[in-house]
Amino acid sequence: MYGNREILETINMVSHQHLDVRTIxxxxxxxxxxxxxxxxxxxxxxxxxxxRAGNLVRVGDDIAREIGVPIVNKRVSVTPVAIxxxxxxxxxxxxxxxxxxxxxxxxxxxxxxxxxxxKAMSPYEREFLLSIPQALAETRKICSSVNVATSxxxxxxxxxxxxxxxxxxxxxxxxxxxxxxxxxxVVFANAVEDNPFMAGAFLGMGEDDCVxxxxxxxxxxVKSALERVDGDLTEVAECIKQTAFKITRVGQLVCREASKxxxxxSGIVDLSLAPTPVVGDSVAHILEEIGLESVGACGTTATxxxxxxxxxxxxxxxxxxxxxxxxxxxxxxxDAGMIRAAESGLLTLExxxxxxxxxxxxxxxxxxxxxxxxxxxxxxxxxxxxxGVVNTKTTAVRVIPAYGKKVGDYVEFGGLLGRAPVMPIHTxxxxxxxxxxxxxxxxxxxNKN
Amino acid sequence: xxxxxSVIGKDKRGIIAHVSxxxxxxxxxxEDISQTILQEYFTMIMAVDLDASxxxxxxxxxxxxxxxxxxxxxxxxxxxxxxxSMHRVDTGAHSL
Lengths: 449, 96
Known about the structure:
The structure holds two protein chains of two kinds.
Chain A: H1 4-16, E1 21-28, H2 38-53, H3 56-67, E2 71-78, H4 81-84, H5 91-105, E3 109-116, H6 123-138, E4 142-150, E5 154-156, H7 157-173, E6 185-189, E7 210-216, H8 219-226, H9 233-262, E8 265-270, H10 283-290, H11 300-318, E9 322-323, H12 336-343, H13 349-355, E10 362-369, H14 374-390, E11 395-402, E12 410-414, E13 418-421, H15 431-436, E14 439-440
Parallel strand pairs in A: 1-2, 2-3, 3-4, 4-6, 7-8, 8-9, 10-11
Antiparallel strand pairs in A: 1-7, 4-5, 5-14, 6-11, 12-13
Helix pairs in contact in A: 2-5, 3-9, 5-6, 6-7, 7-14, 8-9, 8-10, 9-11
Chain B: E1 2-10, H1 15-25, E2 29-38, E3 41-49, H2 57-71, E4 73-79, H3 80-87
Antiparallel strand pairs in B: 1-3, 1-4, 2-3
């Protein structure tokens, strides 16, 4: 049995250390909405989302009140729209329908304006990808993701080349909002089918008709626990494991209860430590608590590797099914410690890239100058994707070539998306490499059969 | 439905009496109670059972919060399952 100390520990985690459940994400399959008519497809999609997710926000809020832990976001992920619209076409009508449904049920975001083009793009998929900038500029709640590589298929460099320009177009079309469109677009390697986190959530083809996936959070809780550890790194890892267990258990409880009340199947808990810009909710500050003067210093990759591994080990036992991205997130604009280190030049794009080799998920919420060329963006994507493909892990790029901004300026998004200092990026031209196109073959070690 | 009531705030006379009376009026049964003073802060933890209460969880929560505001302390109620989940390896996290 537990005593007052444990009860107060839990209360303290919420009141002083920003413990929350970051998201309940309902995955809804749209496969049964596919027709040969855009209008009928849209009608079926709207009806299904209203039917399955109509109570999502209320149920999330009820559970949060009952357990006394905030559930920050309620979201929906759907089957990649490029698949749903392949027969009927009409993806712009579909995205407007999705945005309207998302607005009406009161969720924060809906993810799945997505395409899986890791091996090749059909002519329609190419047309779909080109619609992303307009789609994200026109809608409020929709998030988009594109899988351009897997460890099995290699890297579709034609898609990577296209995504550089699409990211630039997103920045331009949403220039009045600090190029916000780019914050809603993720380019993936090895995208996962059950990710509850935005902007990369979609529901994969192997998933149930309606499923609840939960993303936990809690960097502040880990940091506070580490403040009491004076020992060596084995003790640091133990402390993180124990804390991750407790945090994940909250997610597991919420996942089971929400799926029961919503008549959905219980999916996975994503163990990611997701920071917010609020002071005391930073992954960077955990690394500094372990013993770095600043994130970005030598030692950053090693401490992050320790953190990421310990979070998984603690979380795995706390949850029946672990999934999603499950690791420490390092989105620059959403983490007070990362923002400060990037501002002062202590944290560079190159160091961030190295960090992504040992954690989830990638180059995330990084602002670069608005005049960065599409080829440089594509090459940045290619580098990050290569890390994922070779290491058989998910990596992603969510980069913001902030229109009209230069190094030293800021992009302000507010809320959970935070503010990003515009960081310098190498401008030497990779244009010839990107123009070659084709596919980078899968690494030898992916051939395991 | 089992829950934990926590009362945290500056120590003053009558906190236990007021909270107990409020729970009694709502037919909420107190199964265990403990209190400590931590750095001048009064901390009381009550394990309660709401099964006999005609009020739903939200109503009980609201009344306790109002009482807390009038006493100048923070009163919260959370389902016991959150504590089971976090602090027990064997039975936690199954349902509320």
